[in-house]
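Changelog-linked ticket: S-adenosyl-L-homocysteine example.
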Amino acid sequence: MPPDAEQQMQFLYTLRTRGVTDPRVLTAMERTDRGLFVDGIFADRAYQDVPLPIASGQTISQPSVVGLMTQALAVHPRDKVLEVGTGSGYQAAILSHLGRRIYTIDRHRRLTRTAQERIEALGLTNVTVMTGDGSHGLPDQAPFDRIMVTAAAEDPPGPLLAQLKPGGIMVVPVGQSDSVQSLIKVTKSESGQFDYEELREVRFVPLVEGLGSD
Ligand code: SAH
């Protein structure tokens, strides 16, 4: 069931009070029903600002963190965007309203299959869902204007830095997987130099190499 007016108002109010103020991001999130991306048993918590478990031992992120990361990515309508860590497909669906072309990759086929079905059902035709190890990026489609990593790396992965266009932005949680991590915004200058800005503390599942078992 889509959110009722009260739930939707509360959802957007919470996003704003937690710092998601970019109108384009808020509109994209308003258009993306989070209830369609969580499993049935968690349906009653879909519009609360909490992460929830999804298949393959992963999680759908907290909406305010999704909003802040999307806002930091500053996606322009003509941008080609890579998301590493499809998970439920929720973040990719939001990005589809902001960029021109979205590639999203996850190491669990079980997750990409479901995410693909949801994205198709919503008629979002500018999203390509792929199965694979996204820590190597997507050399065939590179370079990207924007890259969002939604799993925690020990360092921003080198192949992803290399696949960012000059002038591009990458948002990535960095740190050990069993502790608090820092959300980092990496900006690549026109001359190819990197600037790193620490945005806030976050907690994400780890970026793991290789394909998942399901
Ligand atoms: N963005 C997702 C939540 C991501 S949870 C959403 O909107 O629901 C993090 C995801 O990263 C998990 O699904 C996990 O399988 C994936 N992941 C971890 N390491 C990966 C890797 N090397 N390549 C691709 N995906 C990876």
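Closing comment: Example verified and attached. Strands lie at 52-53, 59-60, 80-84, 101-106, 127-131, 144-149, 164-174, 181-188, 194-202. The chain has a mean pLDDT of 96.
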